[in-house]
Amino acid sequence: MKLTSLIKPLAAGVLLGLSASAAQAADSYTLRLAHFWPSGSSVDKVVNAWAERLNERSDGRLTIDIYPSQTLAKAPASYDATVNGVADITVTAQGYSAGRFPLTQVIELPGIVTSAENASCVLQNLYDEELISNEYKDTHPLFFFAHGPGHIHTGEKMVKTPEDLAGLRIRRATTVVGDLLEGLGAQPVGMPAPETYTAVQRGVMNGVAFPWQAMKDFRLNEQLTQHTEIGLYTLSFITTMNNATYARLPDDLKQVIDSNSGMEWARTMGKELDDLDARGREEALKEGHSFYTVEGGTENPAWKETLQGVIDHNIEMLTAKSLPADQVYDRAKSLVPVCAS
C-alpha cells in the first residue's frame, strides 16, 4: 500500500476531528431566566444588564431569555421551578419558600445592616464561608444580594409608634417579617410583591413593609402616601441556576458564568438597589407625601423591646432545631463593618 493512500484518510480524520472540536467550541446555549419584578422595572433592567454581560463575555454563545412578571413561574414557585428545570436560572426571594432557608433569613432580622450593598456583601460572605451553603445543594447559586432597609408605608394613617400599627393590615414579605409586624401589633398579610398594588387598591391592605425601590417598582407610591422610615428589616435574594443546566455547559462557558458570579455581582446588585432606593424616595418627595423618621431606627426605645423579643425568639426557635442560628447571626453582625469598606 502506498504511503499516500494512508495519509489521505488520516488527514481527513484529523480534519474531521478538528471540525468537530471547533463546532463543539462554537456551540451556543439559550437559558431561561425567571423573576417576579415587572418588565421594565429597575430591577428587571439590572437583571438584563447581567444577562447582556454574559452574552458579551461569551462572544454571543450564551443568550439569556428573561421571563419577568412571574410569566414563567409564580413568585412562590420560582425556586422550585429552577430545581425542576422549568427555568434554567431564577432571581427570587428565599422568603417566598417559607421555612426552606431559615439560616439565610437570619439576615432579615432588624438591626443588622443599613444598606443594600452592605447586606448583599454580608449575605454573600455567609454563603462563601459555608455558614448557609447547605441550604442550596439542590441548585447552583451564582450570587446573593439583599434590598435596602424596609420601611412601613400606609395609605391614610401615619405610623409613629408601635401602637399606631394596631389592627392595620400590612403586607409582609416573609414569615420572619410577619413575626416582626405581628409583634408590633399589626395584622401581617402574606402575598407576593407583584400582587400588592391591586390589594391596596381594593382595600385588602392598609399598607406594606417595603424598601423604597419596591415602592417605585410596584407603583405603590401612587397609592400609599404616609411613610415611616425605621429600617425594620432587609430581604435576601438569590440568583441561582439549575444543577443539570450548569453541568452540561462546556468548561469555557462555565468560566464565563463563574467570573460573573459571587461577590462582584452581589455588591453590584446591592449598589444598584441602594441607588434605586434613592430614586423611589425622591419620587415620593416630589409627590408631596408625608414622612416620619423613627429616631434611632430599630434601637428606638419605643420599638426596641418588642423587636428584640422577636429576634431572640427567632434565634431560639432555630437553635431548638439544631441549627447554628446564633453563629450565623453573630457572624452577620461582625461582617457589617468588614463589608462597609
From TrEMBL:
<keyword id="KW-0732">Signal</keyword>
<dbReference type="GO" id="GO:0055085">
    <property type="term" value="P:transmembrane transport"/>
</dbReference>
<feature type="signal peptide">
    <location>
        <begin position="1"/>
        <end position="25"/>
    </location>
</feature>
<protein>
    <submittedName>
        <fullName>TRAP-type C4-dicarboxylate transport system, substrate-binding protein</fullName>
    </submittedName>
</protein>
<dbReference type="Pfam" id="PF03480">
    <property type="entry name" value="DctP"/>
</dbReference>
<dbReference type="InterPro" id="IPR038404">
    <property type="entry name" value="TRAP_DctP_sf"/>
</dbReference>
<dbReference type="InterPro" id="IPR018389">
    <property type="entry name" value="DctP_fam"/>
</dbReference>
